[in-house]
Design a protein that fits this description.
The chain is α+β, with helices and mostly antiparallel strands and 238 residues long. The chain has four helices and nine strands, in the order H-E-E-E-E-E-E-H-H-E-E-E-H. The structure holds fe (ii) ion. The site of fe (ii) ion has 5 residues, from strand 5.
Length: 238
């Protein structure tokens, strides 16, 4: 006796599941494509990533215990870090570093005859929340010779550096002559331009969204990796 199915019989369950999965994949494909985001352009970390621990390591760069508040336009810098599929980098470490309101880095390599603002921390880090969100208190960056105002930013996750870049002040006149900003494809430059707008109680507001490619880990010099570990230890024991 033949064991073949009648033509109108429903296909066996495994085959039905395979057909449904194939249909589902076809339907989901446009959604997956829509969720793909372009990674934020990378930039050099520059020569002023901390080589010695800052006096404090936290997310408020405008306040150092026992000292006057930092000079400059205090700013609430918020943002989110997502991957190219739109997933938040929950728990990732975001680092920022920048010069003080006089244009001076708190770094032994910056020996220009410019006064140092002791109330500015120079560096800070924090971890992203479940939605990939982060928050810093810092100052609106200022220009220094040869550079438009910028804040250096790095994102690390699971021991890998996902992104090193710099954010710039949208509308700053110095942007037009900044060679690092100019090196970025014009169509992608917008991703690094951040508006600094008036907020509550005289604090500016700025928002910087980043997209990282989890398939690409940035390469950094060994001393940077050493200092990152040192900075984390400093925070743990604070
Ligand atoms: Fe810089």
């Amino acid at each position: 006796m033949s064991r073949s199915r009648r033509p109108d019989a429903p296909p066996p369950a495994p085959r039905r599941r395979a057909v449904l999965a194939a249909i589902g994949a076809v339907l989901a494909a446009p959604v997956a494509r829509a969720a793909t985001r372009q990674a934020t352009p990378a930039q050099t970390s520059g020569p002023f990533y901390p080589r010695t621990p800052p006096v404090e390591v936290d997310a408020d760069l405008t306040s150092v215990a026992g000292r006057a508040p930092a000079r400059g336009a205090h700013t609430e810098l918020t943002g989110r870090v997502l991957d190219t599929g739109g997933r938040p980098l929950s728990g990732a470490m975001v680092e920022i570093w920048q010069c003080d309101a006089h244009g001076r880095y708190h770094h032994p390599g910056d020996d220009r005859p410019v006064p140092l603002d002791p109330g500015f921390q120079g560096y800070g880090h924090t971890r992203c929340d479940a939605a990939g969100g982060y928050r810093f208190r810092t100052i609106r960056p200022v220009a220094y010779p040869g550079r438009a105002p910028h804040i250096h930013v790095a994102v690390r996750e699971s021991g890998s550096v996902r992104l090193v870049t710099q954010l710039y002040v949208a509308g700053a006149p110095e942007n037009a002559s900044d060679r690092l900003l100019d090196a970025i494809d014009a169509a992608r430059r917008e991703a690094l331009l951040v508006r600094f707008e008036a907020g509550d109680a005289g604090i500016l507001r700025a928002h910087f969204e980043m997209v990282v490619d989890r398939g690409q880990a940035a390469v950094e010099p060994p001393w940077v990796a050493w200092m990152r570990r040192h900075l984390e230890d400093a925070r743990r024991t604070a």
